[in-house]
Specification:
The protein has 214 residues and is an alpha/beta fold. It has 8 helices and 4 strands.
Length: 214
Amino acid sequence: MFLAETANCHVFNIEYPLAPEHPFPVPVLVTYEVVQWIFQHTDTLHLDAARIAIGGHSAGGNLATAISLWNAEQTHPVPLIAQILDYPPLDLATDPADKSFFKEAIPTEQARQFNAMYIARAEDAYHHLTSPLYAAQIEALPQTLVLTAELDSLAQEAQQYAKRLQAAGVHVEHLEFAGQPHAFTHHGDANVALQAWQRIADFLRHVFQSAKRS
């Protein structure tokens, strides 16, 4: 509701199939079908087809990244103009025990369980749609906002992805929130969370206004 009102846009929350009942690639494929459906029905939904962005928090950020990558590989991609990645897990191949750890971070064993439930086949751990950090082709991705939390074991991989996008010529904005844990926009300090939500809204407003002018 906050984004819809502050950025003056429609917001669709996609209820994608969940692991372990529906491991990779099911959530990616189903979510992309919904994105395509939205684009195909913009007239009925009273949307501007030239101003569609995608984003997500945590696992949703992983999915949003995967959708952007998958979309860029299509012959007729949906014209996504931006992606917003909020503390996303982008490297499911590296053992969580080998990532930075803070007492506020997701416990190592729990992180391992999350990865194991989503990745049914070991060889998929390095697939670019499960671990976007390893994607080879990223030049065609839309402008990106990346939010990370200082006390999150996932922050480093999101930072690395932002740097890779920037090096590939993609317009990237990266903000790290000092002293914040994973999921701080939903379960952290309310004032800091509001700052993050406001930054997302400002980013969306700028993206949509730029698209309208062009």
